[in-house]
Amino acid sequence: MGVAAAALGWRPREFWASTPSEFWAAIRAYERMHCVPEGT
Asked: What does pTM read for this prediction?
């Protein structure tokens, strides 16, 4: 829940209403959007 709140900006209600699949899809999307390319 800490990652959902800190990184995704989710409120507790949003976290607890999400399915594990929805949570991990959001985490993967966050990682793609915030990834620093290697070599930079």
From this structure: 0.78
